[in-house]
Amino acid sequence: MDVGGRMIHMLEAGRGSPTVVIVPALGTTSIEYAPLLPVLGQESSAVVFDRAGMGWSDPVRSPLAMLDAAADLRKTLALSGYGPPYVLVGHSMGGYVVRLFAAAHPGEVSGVVLVDSSHHDQASRYPGYHLTTIRRALTERITPYGLRRLAIELGLLDSPGHLDLGDHQRLTTWWEQTLRAQIGTETGRRAPTLGDIPLTVVTCSEYNEDNRTPEQVASFSRHYRIWFPMQRELTGLSTSSRHIVAENAGHYVHRARPDVVTKAILEHVKGAGPL
């Protein structure tokens, strides 16, 4: 869809209202969430949004483009014929986009589902957050090249969890990773509350199959002691909320427990969200 001279891509399924709108996590595209669409499309319209710089959408114009993604999303939905109300679903940093949309246009949103969403204040909660951010950002920029990429192509290493569509996607991921603290802070400022919009917060579980070695289990448990209280805090964004822990699911909850994610979404579609 042409949005102000830029092409923005969405995957689509089903018909009906409200429209379910899924916003992917950092570094992931609409393909990651495509397996959810057949189930959701049986009940209503459902789309997955490739924000600028990701998937088949045109490259970003600004390092902080994620803060503009909500406006792009609204224009894309309107031009594609998807009117409100919307059930917005945000995974990880995609939760920031959902919050910005809902805060700016609360009358158009009938429900919000935050799937293991980033917290706007997480930079202040984790020791060494900024150093870790720099290290991960450098890894994101460097690892698609050289020996690691060759090993992936030869089948010696598992490929990344997202579809690699070229350097513009790697650059977008790099900017989002590098500036995630600023993006979170600005989201908290612009979208401090969802008012009375029904909200479901879905959180990963402490023990899951993503962590197989004792070292991984111990590391994730340390992370979870900080992460879980922040997930509970997110329920305070709305006066009508609930919190679900997806047992045996890691951060990519929809992979291990698509049933939990789709059920949470469809409860809002059917008007059975939090009261």
What's the quick description here?
The chain contains 10 helices and 9 strands. It is α/β, with parallel strands linked by helices.
Description:
With 275 residues, this protein is an alpha/beta fold. Helices cover 40% and strands 15% of the residues. The protein is built from 10 helices and 9 strands. It has helices at residues 37-41, 69-79, 94-104, 129-142, 146-153, 167-178, 180-190, 214-234, 253-256, 258-269, and strands at 2-3, 6-7, 9-13, 19-23, 46-50, 86-91, 109-115, 199-203, 241-245. Strands 3-5-4-6-7-8-9 form a 7-stranded mixed sheet, sandwiched between helices. A two-stranded antiparallel sheet has the order 1-2. Helix 3 (94-104) runs parallel beside helix 7 and helix 4 packs antiparallel against helix 6. The radius of gyration is 18 Å and the shape is globular. Residues 161-165 have low confidence and may be disordered.
